[in-house]
Amino acid sequence: MTCGPQLANSPTVIVMVGLPARGKTYISKKLTRYLNWIGVPTKVFNVGEYRREAVKHYSSYDFFRPDNEEAMKVRRQCALAALRDVKLYLTEEAGQIAVFDATNTTRERRGMILNFAKENGFKVFFIESVCNDPNVVATNVMEVKLSSPDYRDCNSTDAMEDFMKRINCYQASYQPLDPDDYDRELSLIKVIDVGRRFLVNRVQDHIQSRIVYYLMNIHVQPRTIYLCRHGESEFNLKGKIGGDSGLSNRGKKFAQALNKFVEEQNLKDLKVWTSQLKRTIQTAEALQLPYEQWKALNEIDAGVCEEMTYEEIRDQHPEEFALRDQDKYYYRYPSGESYQDLVQRLEPVIMELERQENVLVICHQAVMRCLLAYFLDKSADEMPYLKCPLHTVLKLTPVAYGCRVESISLNIEAVNTHRERPEVTLCPNLSSLW
After folding, report:
1. Whole-angstrom Cα distance, residue 299 to residue 80?
2. Model pTM?
3. DSSP letter, residue 301
4. In terms of Cα–Cα distance, which of 98, 131, 130 is closest to 11?
5. How many CB atoms within 10 Å of residue 337?
6. 53 noted as active-site residue
7. pLDDT at position 427
8. pLDDT digits (tens, 9 = 90+) for 179-221
9. Nearest alpha carbon to residue 392 among 275, 227, 223
10. Contact 135/22 with Cβ under 8 angstroms?
11. Binding site feature residues
12. Helices 339-355 and 24-37, packing angle to 10 deg
């Protein structure tokens, strides 16, 4: 099996709606990352990027004035160019969802998009971000907009003044979505005041319901997520995969070092999550903090290969050995799991992580790769080869449009369980190493 599930039965265009600095691009990128992670090919089409390509030098907010007819023509052409690329992506490039990231603040513009979708047989789902808190808007402008290429040669005071005038240009003609009357037939969600309140109208299908559920779980509060594997286990020392062995002596030293590290971080209300396997629980016990066990965080099930060394698998199951090398993400161990299965199992963990503030997740190599792939926007092809060494903590800090990662070794020696991507052959290669 070499392809993912077709979760969207016909292609969908997600249309962002809202004034500038309301978090539309943040939502677009985060939602796209999630959809790609669960196996739905998704891409963002940001009309601002098309505009910057068409108009190399931005002068001032005058470009966005509704009475600037020449600029209005350019902006419309940029929107049409983006829609042409949306069509190409959804019809010829195997895309399932396109996110059309622009203000789309008028009924005329939204009507144009609806007609485009109808002509091409695409579904449409609107996401409107409404924010009435001037402090949140000002923070968004300071954190994101002032670093935009539009203001490369501008001081922050002038840039802030210009951008606020740009918002006013849109405000004059802004027609919010009206699910009670004018837009009652549209499928949409309004995200109000950064998730304080939601309004949902006419969800059409499974994928739209998943999008709604995801948007209702994310937040923008500052927080830190720590990911690490359990301390080195007895089976790690023997080169065996799976099983439920306890910690080695070095693994126990790591657990103590992790306790010291957590104390030094001085985090308020840190949540600690483990799997239900002995090696993560023993690691957490050293922290002297409450911890929560998740079955969903258990290591990938290696099926008939559980508790075997790589050499034993190569000798006893040479065909399975070769098949896994050919496509590690979709390959499923006999009576076990694939990385694709693991992603499905971990989706509730991701949803709960998105709801939380500071969390330490003590887990396993394959599980940590899946979680890391979500936060760092890694593809299914890259995921099974991400490096997650023992006795190392990854500190993830959400930033404007992504995640900053710091790798912190706790300087306790451990075996290396990472295996580089092999040279793939079409038949079992008995001389290769797992």
Report:
1. 47
2. 0.93
3. -
4. 98
5. 19
6. no
7. 46
8. 999 999 999 999 999 999 999 999 999 999 999 999 999 998 8
9. 227
10. no
11. 229-236, 279
12. 150
Q: Give the residue carrying structure tokens 């999550």.
A: 273
Q: Give, in order, the Cα–Cα distances in Å from 220 to each of 23, 215, 231.
A: 10, 11, 32
The answer to whether the beta carbons of residues 21 and 103 sit under 8 Å apart is no
Catalytic residue among 49, 69, 206, 230: 230
User: What is the reported pLDDT for 433?
Assistant: 33
Nearest residue to 47 via CA among 97, 90, 109, 121: 109
Residue given tokens 């622009």 in the structure block? 102
The one-letter code for the residue type at 102 is: A
349-369 tens-digit pLDDT: 999 999 999 999 999 999 999
Domains and CATH numbers, the chain: 12-216 (3.40.50.300), 225-409 (3.40.50.1240)
CA count, 13 A, side-chain hemisphere, 294: 22
- Which position among 128, 299, 337, 354 bears the catalytic label? 299
Position of tokens 């001085």? 266
Name the residue among 145, 144, 111 with its Cα closest to residue 126: 111
- Cα separation of 92 and 94, whole Å? 6
Active site (annotated) includes residue 119: no
Q: Which residues are annotated as a binding site for substrate?
A: 229-236, 279
Is residue 431's pLDDT more than 70?
no
User: What is residue 1's predicted lDDT score, i.e. its pLDDT?
Assistant: 37
Cβ contact 287:267 at 8 Å? no
> How far apart are alpha carbons 369 and 366 in whole angstroms?
5
Model confidence over 374-427: pLDDT tens digits? 999 999 999 999 999 999 999 999 988 889 999 999 999 999 999 999 886 544
Determine phi and psi for 418, rounding to 5 degrees: -80, 140
% residues pLDDT > 90 (the chain): 90
Contacts with 214 (C-beta within 8 Å, 6 or more apart), sequence order: 31, 34, 351, 354
Model confidence pLDDT, tens digit, residues 248-305: 999 999 999 999 999 999 998 999 999 999 999 999 999 999 999 999 999 999 999 9
